[in-house]
Every structure is written in structure tokens, then in C-alpha cells.
Amino acid sequence: MTTQPSPPLMHSAPIPPPPVRRLRGYAFDPSLSLQLETMGLNEVVFKVPWEDDLQRGPVGEYLEVVDFDPASQSFYEPVDLNNSYLIAQDGLAPSEGNPQFHQQMAYAVAMTTIRNFEQALGRKVLWRSHTIDTSDKAGTHGNNKKSTDLKEVFVQRLRIYPHALREANAYYSPQKKALLFGYFPATTAQPGTHMAGGMVFTCLSHDIVAHETTHALLDGMHRRFIEPTHPDSLAFHEAFSDIVALLQHFSFPEVLRHQIAKTRGDLASQNLLGQLAQQFGVAIGNYGALRDALGSVNPDTGHWEPLAPDPHDYLTVMEPHSRGSILVAAIFDAFTAIYKSRVADLLRIASSGTGVLPAGELHPDLVNRLADEAAKAAKQVLLMCIRALDYCPPVDLTYGDYLRAIITADTDIVPDDDRGYRVAFIEAFRRRGIYPLDVRNLSIESLRWPGAREDEDQDFDKIASKLRGFPDRARYFVTREESYKKIEEMRGYIHRIITNEITDYATFERLTGLALAGDSILPGLAIGVNRLPVFEIHSLRPSQRVGPDGDLLSQLVVAITQRRTVPIDPNDPTGPTFQFRGGCTLLLDLDSLNLHYRIVKPIDDDARLERQRQYMQGNLNGSLRATYFAPFTPAAMYEPFALLHREY
Amino acid sequence: MSPIVRIRMYRQGLGDCFLLTFPHQDGVSQPDFHMLIDCGVIAGTQDVAQKMMAVVDDIFQTTGGHLDLVVGTHEHWDHISGFNQVRAVFDKFTINNVWLAWTEDPNNATAQQLKQGRGARLAALHTALTRLDGAGFTDQAAGIRQILSFFGEEPGVAPGLGAAGQPTGAATTQDAMHYLSTRQEASVRYCSPKDPPQNLDGVDGVRVYIFGPPQDLKLIKMSDPTKKGQETYGISAISAEDAFFAAVSPVGGDSTYTQQKALSYPFDAFYQVSPDEVKDLQHDDFFRRYYGFEDQDPDAWRRIDSDWLNVASELALNLDSDTNNTSLVLAFELGDPGSSKVLLFAADAQVGNWLSWGSLSWDVQEPGKPLRTITSNDLLARTVLYKVGHHGSHNATLRLQGLELMVSDELVAMIPVDHSMAVKKRWNMPFPDLYNRLKTKTEGRVIRIDEGIPSRQDASTLTDAEWQAFLTSVTQTDLYIEYSI
Q1: Among A119, A145, A118, which residue's Cα sits nearest to residue A132?
Q2: By mean pLDDT, which of A158-162, A459-463, B228-232, B390-394 is the weakest?
Q3: Which 8-state DSSP code applies to residue B418?
Q4: Range of A26-35, A575-584, B211-220, B394-403 with top mean pLDDT
Q5: Close Cβ partners of A82 (under 8 Å, ≥ 6 residues apart)
Q6: What is the pTM of this model?
Q7: Cα dist. A96→A25, A199, B223, B308 in Å?
Q8: Which chain B residues touch A74 with a CB distance below 8 Å?
Q9: I need a labelling partner for B113 at 20 to 30 A (CA). Which of A35, A218, A244, B197 fits?
Q10: How far apart are CA B39 and CA B71, in angstroms?
Q11: Can you tell me the mean pLDDT for A246-255?
Q12: Which of A186, A3, A230 is nearest to A96 (CA)?
């Protein structure tokens, strides 16, 4: 039953729609409600953006929850969140046994994650588009289709299946633009903390839902990031999704205060905020949470120990989750450093300069202030991490590239980094041996992406000037579908400009890392029907932000890519091949017509090609699965996250 | 001087079949001691009957129809298929002793539990496979089917042929194992690492250490070294794997899983809405709109009817590696305890099995010699022949606590692999990284079934003298490669 606002009467003020819809859910997962210590803080109210015409499901602007359980051959009736009783009570009460609560929780956490992204990016998010194969070649898994055979279609909503799998797994499907959540009976060697045989639902874990939604959001922005070209590729996807889930913990005030009190303000020690997916982890037999950014339980002693950063790990650890943990630990490390610097004065005051806080519990006022600072720091770090996505190359991302993206993005927003946030990041990465290639040193200036010299960027000026009005017009697109369609138009437009109107191709190629000349001799380069190398305007995103001087910056983020088909074994030119991609991300300033930044992965970079080839030959993840199910084949790439998540 | 031992690796295909001969020493009039470690080839091999027949005929010729010892390392087809396929010839042998792992012992409760569990999982996986095929996931199903071929041909497929073309028993590993364990004239021993080192009748100075399978069930279940945490199983009423199998098994069937079906549903029956109810036009149209049941529905590509079945691949891998970990692993010490060369036959042992060796040690008292305590690491350090596990796959050779402890500069590796067969099954054998490491450690002395003896270029780091020594110790024919120590 939907409540309609009452028709405005002549003498009464119009009733505005509510800013948020309040929905109850778990801050972590059901297991914490069973422990006296944590039960009070486990249930939170998610405040998600209000959708006027939210349908049963729920089905809204961004999401559609379709509750089908194939293993049980069963559907579960969709919940109507606009039911007046539910609106008045902040939704259904948390309940493991009622599938409609599961639908509500999945919707609430996913919407929260989406909202954080939109806040950081300053624009509406779009999902990965659906590719339809219009050729008559059978099969949809190959990479070698002609671009004219494939048509991209707008996908309005991400689909969520809360009970899709009967296994200890949950994953995002890039093909189906869907999140599939599993459920399973818990088997645990520690029945004290979890009922053996009790059902565990991954859709009731805030961390797992946020993690999977982030995969989808990242995929929507950078669709090549799911192609493993480097040990960092899939690891980055995992790490980024973990980071968003973790930092969202800090937006639950009760949880924050409780944990700050418990750790006496020391967030680097063992605490719930740094841990992911408790119930899941324990249910599959871990000593605690599935992943812990700060430390782990030593299996021999049974005690939690903090993680000591080891720069060798980055060189030796290749398995995606373990490798992802390195990045998560680095970012969490940066966060703790930032938090510490923010609360240094509070602790000085509280300890009267001795640095030693009084024994026992902290004063509640102090706890509140510390919690405030922690929440602010977490929010800022989360924004830094998400904004950095606009400053990433379109393909072959490495951790070093991501560090440069974070630094560059932050420099654009915060002119004077007096608190040293950027340095905190650099230091945290350095401690873990993560160094970007091709930089002379780790100074902020060196890490910033390069731009173009005045005398070199006329062609970019030309593109920028033709697209000047776009971000402004973008603000008036009413629907995301309209946005998508306009972006498609602009992509075609820019493609034509680059094909026909560039005056100095040599400089343009050098600055963008593309090969555009008709006589290009790069082996394996895809050539089009016009006998010119094929290139794709990979993505286009308008961006408006407040610049360092307080004025409004109108920018366009354009990614251009190309590919080469190269043999995996150079001694076997007719054998299996792989796609080597290159190109650039350009940040064009539409006011000054300058090329602010160019983030380049040259298509003719043979060293990078060799690295990718070695990665593909070596298949450094030497699991049993890798023995039987040869990697990099279409079958193996069919659901990359399903397989990845099966190995936790 | 006669060699101490001749190791003959038969070249039937992707599978293990090793004939070890300990020749009588000069001046001693005693027959040679012959032992057979495994005799099998992977399902789907071409001309399997002829190949296996040729192999077993050769064994008969060489041994005069008498085997002092037959070892069946574990219940996988590529190790024991021959006992079914060429049973008629095996019937003609006389066998003195049969050694099997304790996990085959009918009087051991744990062993029987493992075996039963294996049987039930295998059956459920075959059902899942049929459903995957039906849903069009032929690629995934094919991959899983190949893994399950380690347990024999699929139900309904004819086994190999014996003499006069008669089928010989069911084409299952269970049957082959059963044949070995019920040989009337043989004395059957179920081996465990707790046993003291064994002697071989009539062979002086050689003792055999039993490295595995481990007694600790957690280690048998351990297949992946990167997984942290404790191994868990068997405590709750229904495990995650059981819940999956219960879903796969049809209603009213008689497998162990159908009884657990009710327990495996996530919600009370009250909440469940069946597909029939939803398709009924009287019912609310939410699911007809958003999920749809017709092929031409615009959102058909988003359905998840069969995605849940894909975990079967994981479960097949678990089943495979659990079985691999029950491998009987033998180390032969060829002389004085503590100072002589060692042969390591690791069958298909995986991580859990390997890791269990670290804590093993034995007290050896040779007559007239002081008591010595021999550890497994010590034996590894003196290993001069390593029979590479699982056809060179990554998971069957532990690195730091395994291969890297084999520091003898006389190390030779034998890999019973047929790469082209592996490629047909889309398997990564031998694993390139491991293969390169083996080549480095052995200085090129890696002998493969398919490629035979290495060439001089492959062993370029050996001196001419070393190379000559190696060459004179190996013999190669189409049927086998023999290395003498």
C-alpha cells in the first residue's frame, strides 16, 4: 500500500519528500546480536536516499531485488517498503527467518554504498552496460569480436539475488549485472561462537553486501579492471571493495563509540572496525573475521597479533585476496595515521601532556570527540579513495598507479595539505614496498600525473573547446538513461574529432600513448575498415568539483584505448593469444581548455607487454583449480568473481 | 657391479606404473626382488586395452610371473586401472605381498568413514553434472567430468577388456582396489607412518619408510596451503557441502542426501513460493515480469537458474584432493641408515600429506650398528630419485618444505606425464613453474613419459663426466624408461 502525499490545499505549505528512507539492518551481521557485548550496537538504521516511486522488490532507480532461490526451487514474495506500517517503523525488524527482511537489508546496504560513491564523485553512477552480440558468430565469451558486432545497451538497475547460491560465497556477475548472494549451514570448530548447522546468509552481512556492490560500481566505471593483466588487477578489485566496506563501518556512530571506548582510542589495535565479515569467517572455520586489515589470530597461540608491514610481500604474494590485503592494510594504515594526527591534541589534553591516558574507561566526552574525528577521517579517506578512480588509467592498473591517482586527485581538491594526508598515504605504501614505476622519487610533485606543455596541447584545446558545455548540460539530464545516451553521443563525437581534426598527430600520439597513423607497424594492432588503427573512446565522464582556489572546476574525464592481439608464447605465433591494451585517461579542463593530466599506458610499451605476457604464462596463482581449469580461457573468465570468491 | 635398484617407468600414457627391481648382488644366489608401484592410466586414453596389455605382458616377462610386492597407492583410476583392465593377466601372477594405505583398511573405522563419504559425494557430483549439462553449462560440466574421471569411467561406460575381450569387473577404482586387497595368496598390509621401517624379503640393506597418508584427518582434508584457519567438518547436522548435494539430489531418491533435503531449506515452508504458483496467472505478476520464464523475455540473460550448480567444480576439486591426500608415500633407503641414497615415491600426495612428514622420525637399529634416529627431512636431503607427484601438477609437490629440502646433487626426477593428453583434458601438467624448478634442481635430469630422456642441451650444466654417468644409467624403449642406481 503506497502512501500518497495529500493534495496540497490552498492554505497549507507543501509537504516536501523526506530526504532519507530509514531502514533497519545489521551494522555487521546477525552473529553480533547474539553476544551481550555487541548486541546493542549491531542494529542500526540505514538512511538511504528517498525514492518516491519505490516498487515492491524493492525495485527502484538503481536496484531491483528479485528473490529467487534456485537451489530450493523457491521464490520469496517481494517486500513493499512503502507500506505505511513499515515506513513508520523504519522498515521490518531484523530477522534471520523472514526473507523480506533480507531483501530490505540488501537494498539498504547497497543504496548506502551507492550514495557514498555519488557523494565522492559528484555525479550519478552508472552500471556496466550490457553487450549484445549482433553477429552470427556463436558464443559470447570471446575477446576477439569486431567492435561493430557488439552493441552496448544501457542497464538501468543492478539486480540483487539475496538467496542465489547454496554455498559459502557471494559474487558480482559482470555478465548479468547482478549480485548473487549465497547461504549455507555453518560448520564450525568453535560451536561456542556460532550454532553449528545454523544457516548463514551472506546477504545479511553489511560487509559482504557493501563489498559486492562496490565491485559493481567499480566495474561500471572501469570495465577493463576485471581483466587480469597484472597480479594487481584482481587484487585491486578485491582490495577496493574491502576498503569501502571497512570505511563504511565508521559511519555507524554507536559502533564507533563502542569500539573507541573499548580500544581506548587506539584504532590500530584489534577492533571490529578493521575486520570484515565476522560471521562468515567464523562459519567457514577461521579464527575470526574473514579478513582483518590490522592483524590476525596467530594459529599457534590463538592470540590476535597486529600485522607488521613487510615490503617483500608485494614482491612475493600473488594470490588475489592476500595481495589485496596488502593494499587494504596500506590504506588502513594511512587512515590510522591521519586519525592519530587529528586526535593528537585531544589525547594531549586528556593525558595532561603525559601521553598516558588514565587507567580504566575513557571519559564519554573524550570518546565522543575521538569518535567524531575518526568518522571525519574515515569519510575523508573514503572520498580520497573513490575520487582517485577518475585519475586512474583505463587499463592495466597497478597499486603504484593507484597511489599516484590518490595523490593527484587530492591535490586537485585540497591545495594545502597541512595535516599531511598525502604524506600519510605515501608512507603507508612505501612501508609495504609499493612503488610506482617510472617515477624518480616519492615526492608529491613526482607522483602527480603529468599534463602537457603549453605548446603541445593545441589539439586537446580543440577537443576541450568543442565539449565545453557538456558538464553543465549534464546537470540537467533528468534520468540516468538520458545521461548514458548523451555520453554515447559525445563518445562518437570525440572519436570523429580525433580521426579527422587533429593537426599534429605525432605529438598527439606521444602524449596519449596511442598509435593512430595509418602506417603504424605495431604487431597485432587492431586495424579498422578505413585501414586506420582502431581506437575506442572507452569512457567519458563529466566532473564538476570545487578547485583549490574555491572556484568551480568543470572537467571532462576521457579515456581512450586500443588493443593488440599478441601470442602468449612468442615462439608459437599461431598459438593462443591475449589482448594487450593501451591508451590513456585525459583530464580536460573545460574552462581553461588545458589538458590537466594525462595518465598514459602506451600501446607500444614493449616492456609492459612482456610483463603481461610473463604474468599470463606464469599464472602465478598456482592453485589446484589452476591445474584443472586452465586460466585465461573463455570458460575460466566466464564469472571471474565467482571463482575468485570460492577461494575466499 | 650390479646396480642396487632398477626403476622402470612404463610409458602407457598419463598414469603411474613403476616396476622396481632389486637385483641379487654378485655372489648371492637369490632371485631378483620385483615390486610394482601402481599400474594405471587416465580414463579416455586411446587404445587403452592394447597399451595396458603390452605393459603388463612386459612385466610378466621380466618378472617371470612373480611379483614380490604390489603397491596400490590410492584410489584413483590413473594409478590402478590396470588391475581391472588387464585382470586376466594379473590373475596369472603370483603375488607375495600387497601394500595399501591404512585408509583402505576395512577394519579401520575412520578409513571406512572416508570411503563411504567419498562414494556418496561422487554419486551426487555425477547428478550435478547431468544437471549442468542440461542447463547448457557444457564447458564447466566437461571440466568437472574430467576430474571425476580419476575415479573411473562414468557409470554405464564399459571398462577395459581382459583376455578374449571380456569386460573385467566394474570400471571403478573401488573395484580395482578391492581386487588387490582380496588377492588370496598375498599377505596384505595396511601401512601407516606409525609403522617402523619395513624390510623387503631377501633384499639386504634396503629399508622402506612410510611417509603417508597422515593419521590426522585434518591434514587429509588440507589441499590448499594458502587457506588460513582451522579445518572444519563433521560437527554439525548438515554441512555446507551436504546442503548443496541435497539440493542437487532429486526428491524421493535413495541417496544419503535426500534425507537431508528438509534440513537444507533456508526458510520455513510458509515463505516458499513454488515456480508453478508464480507462473499461475492468478498470482501476482512480479516474478513473471522481473524474472520471466520464456526464452524470449528481454531480461532472460539475467536469470540464475543454474549458476548455483557451478560450485560443483569446487566440490569436485575437494573430492579429488582429499583422495590424493590418502596416497601411500614410500621412501626407500638404499643402504646404511643415515648415510645412503633415497628414492621417494610420493604418489599424488598433496599439501596436507606432505606437511605431515615434517614431524616424522623413526628409530632404526641395524644389527651390529648403533641406534639411529632418522627424520623425514634427513631422508629428503638424500633423495636421488623423486617420482613427481600427480604428473607434475603444482599442488602435488610442496616447495619450501618439500622440493627445496632435496639437496642431493645427484637428484633425478621422473614425471609420469603425457602433456598432450593433459592438454586434451585442458589440464596444466606439468605445471611450467614447477617443471622449471625441477629442471634446475636436477640439472636437467628430468625424465618424462612423453618426452623420454632429456637431451644434452637440456642438461647443459652437467659436466661431460656427469652426463656420461647419467646416460649409462638410463635405458629407453617405446614401452618404458629405466633408470638404474
Answers
A1: A145
A2: B228-232
A3: -
A4: A575-584
A5: A1, A2, A3, A54
A6: 0.84
A7: 11, 9, 33, 21
A8: 265, 267, 271-274
A9: B197
A10: 9
A11: 90
A12: A186
d(CA A60, CA B303): 19
Can you list the positions of beta strands (E) in B152-278?
187-191, 198-199, 206-212
Interface with A, mutate which of B127, B233, B235 (most A CBs under 10 A): B235
Residue in chain A lying closest to B274 (CA):
A74
Which amino acid, residue A545?
Answer: R
pLDDT (tens digit, 9 = 90+) per residue, A344-391? 999 899 888 888 888 888 899 999 999 999 999 999 999 999 999 999
A632 vs B contacts (CB less than 8 Å) = none
Please state, in angstroms and rounded to a whole number, the distance separating the CA atoms of residues B461 and B444.
Answer: 8
Whole-number pLDDT of residue B1 = 60
**Which residues of chain B are under the pLDDT cut of 50?**
156-169, 226-237
Q: Which amino acid is at A102?
A: H
A96 touches chain B (CB under 8 A): no
Nearest to A185 by CA among B305, B384, B185, B240: B240
Which positions 414-443 of B are in contact with A (Cβ < 8 Å)? 426-429, 431-434
Which candidate, A158, A172, A186, A206, places its Cα nearest to that of A27?
A: A206
C-alpha cell at A385: 579513495
Q: What pLDDT was estimated at residue A474?
A: 66
Please answer whether residues B329 and B212 qualify as being in contact, where contact means their C-beta atoms are separated by less than 8 angstroms: yes
A146 or B42, which is more confident: B42
Distance, in angstroms, between A290 CA and closest chain B CA? 10
Q: Is the pLDDT of residue A472 over 80?
A: no
Q: ipTM of this model?
A: 0.84
Q: Do B286 and A56 touch (CB under 8 A)?
A: yes
Over residues A161-175, mean pLDDT: 93
Question: Would you say residue A196 has pLDDT above 70?
Answer: no
CB-nearest to A187 from B236, B278, B393 is B236
Residues A309-337: what's their mean pLDDT?
A: 89
Q: Phi/psi of residue A47, each to 5°?
A: -110, 100
In chain A, what percentage of residues exceed pLDDT 70? Answer: 89
Cα distances (angstroms) measured from residue B292 to each of A262, B283, B304: 50, 13, 11
Partner-chain contact A626 B428, CB within 8 Å: yes
Report CB contact under 8 Å: A286, B228.
Answer: yes
Chain B nearest CA to A101, separation (Å): 12
Contact (CB, 8 A) for B40 and B55:
no
In whole angstroms, what separates CA A244 from the centre of its chain? 7
Higher-pLDDT residue of A295, A194:
A295
CA distance A514 to B323: 52
HSE value, Cβ hemisphere, 13 Å, CA-based, for B344: 29
Q: Running DSSP on this structure, what letter comes out for residue A147?
A: G
- 3-state DSSP assignment of residue B198: strand
Instruction: Give which of B308, B307, B309, B352 is closest to B327, Cα–Cα.
Output: B352
Q: Which helix (H) or strand (E) holds B249?
A: none
Q: Residues A128-157: what's their mean pLDDT?
A: 71
Best mutation target among A163, A179, A187 (most B Cβ atoms within 10 Å) is A187
- In degrees and rounded to multiples of 5, residue A261 shows phi and psi of -65, -45
CA distance A105 to A90: 12
Instruction: Report helix, strand or coil for B13.
Output: coil
Amino acid B219: pLDDT: 81
Asked, as a colleague might, if the bond just before B23 is cis with ω within 30 of 0, I would say no
Angle at B359 between CA B356 and CA B364, to 5 degrees: 120
Interchain contact, A75 vs B433, CB within 8 Å = no
Predicted pLDDT of residue B164: 40
Q: In terms of pLDDT, which residue wins out, A40 or B156?
A: A40
